[in-house]
Amino acid sequence: MYNLTAAGSAANTQAGSRVFLYEVVGLGQSQNTDNMSYPIRSSGSTLIKVPYNRMNQEMQRIARLGGKIVSIKHLNGSGLGTPAASQATSQTQPPMPKKSKANIPVNIYRPKDPYIGKCLSNEELVAEGGSGTVRHLKFDIAGGDLRYVEGQSIGIIPPGTDENGKPHKLRLYSIASTRHGDDVDDKTVSLCVRQLEYKHPETGETVYGVCSTHLCNLEVGADVAITGPVGKEMLLPDDEDSTIIMMATGTGIAPFRAYLWRMFFEQHEDYKFKGLAWLFFGIPYTANILYKQELEELQSKFPDNFRLTYAISREEKNPDGGKMYIQDRIKEHADRLWQLIQNPKTHTYICGLKGMEGGINEGMSAAASKFDVDWNDYQKQLKKEKRWHLEVY
């Protein structure tokens, strides 16, 4: 299990000695602030020296006193930010450099001319006693030019035609392998696919998804029509010291499996992760924990860098006695999450069913409210900084 105390100590050792200079306006307007001994510029702004590990507390204190931060500078470096837009909404911290997307591969193969790969393996991920079927599929892509990065998706075109006699349209699936593939040879791509199954609203007949059924029943050696890759929203930051918070339900685990393999299993020469990764994973039963062995092996081998938190809705109860959903886990760890999310090196990723977004916002709102911050406004700032990533379906 990730050691919070040890992590905090490490952070203070590495960064606690750094000092920043806040330029603040709006102070010197009350009996309390008039007694402050901070230097005052001719413009009427106040200069305050702040150690790194007290940046957030000082921001909150300034806000309570009616002040507004107009700039933040490192005393041994250059300016770190533009004027703060709203002290109450974002508690502005220095923005991280944006990840270049110029070299991200997109639409190498299109629906009119897909790449025809072959199925190398098709394995069940749901253990006995679980609900539904979820398969891990690995495809051979050695014969073409298909390449991708973690966080992207590929399209699959199922064979045959629809009820109108037209070819089936492609379905997009998040890639569950790193850019180097499960065999780390740059020759494969993998997916995590749940067979769609539902009752017809009029007839009550069981209906199975066209593409998901095609993939779940795919035999080893069979052809598969692949398009893409697509997507730039869920890309990992280049910074190897980042904090990566992942929130998934069901097959939403797919891109996060790719992240975790790249961070921990591969340790590729051009990327050696040294930060913190925290996965919140919502599933109905223990038997539905996809990639359970891999995840728990990571937790055991990298306790200081990987934290794993399950929300098992049909087996666990939340504090109110209801089912344990992912938002309940968010509330449970609200203080720590809030602390992490304010760090400019933290990126949060959400992947899964559309309904999960509302619950996560509910949990984060509870966390932010403890610090008198409006979560909706703060989330907008995170999105603007490209640190809040969402992929739901």
Quick summary:
The chain is an alpha/beta fold.
Q: What's the arrangement of secondary structure elements?
A:
Elements: H1 4-15, E1 19-25, H2 31-34, E2 46-51, H3 55-64, E3 68-74, H4 87-90, E4 115-124, E5 134-140, E6 153-157, E7 171-174, E8 188-194, E9 197-199, E10 206-208, H5 210-216, E11 223-230, E12 243-249, H6 254-266, E13 276-283, H7 292-301, E14 306-312, H8 326-332, H9 334-341, E15 346-352, H10 356-369, H11 375-384, E16 388-392
Parallel strand pairs: 12-13, 12-15, 13-14, 15-16
Antiparallel strand pairs: 1-2, 1-3, 4-5, 4-11, 5-8, 6-7, 6-11, 9-10
Helix pairs in contact: 8-10, 9-10
What can you see in these coordinates?
There is one protein chain. The chain is α/β, with parallel strands linked by helices and 393 residues long. It folds into 3 domains: 9-90, Dna Ligase, domain 1; 115-230, Translation factors (Elongation Factor Tu (Ef-tu), domain 3, Beta Barrel), CATH 2.40.30; 243-392, Rossmann fold. Helices cover 25% and strands 26% of the residues. It contains 11 helices and 16 strands. It has helices at residues 4-15, 31-34, 55-64, 87-90, 210-216, 254-266, 292-301, 326-332, 334-341, 356-369, 375-384, and strands at residues 19-25, 46-51, 68-74, 115-124, 134-140, 153-157, 171-174, 188-194, 197-199, 206-208, 223-230, 243-249, 276-283, 306-312, 346-352, 388-392. The strands form 4 sheets. The protein has a 6-stranded antiparallel beta sheet with strand order 7-6-11-4-5-8, covered by helices on one side. β9 (197-199) and β10 form a beta hairpin. α8 packs parallel to α10 and α9 (334-341) crosses α10 (356-369). The longest helix has 14 residues, at 356-369. The protein is globular.
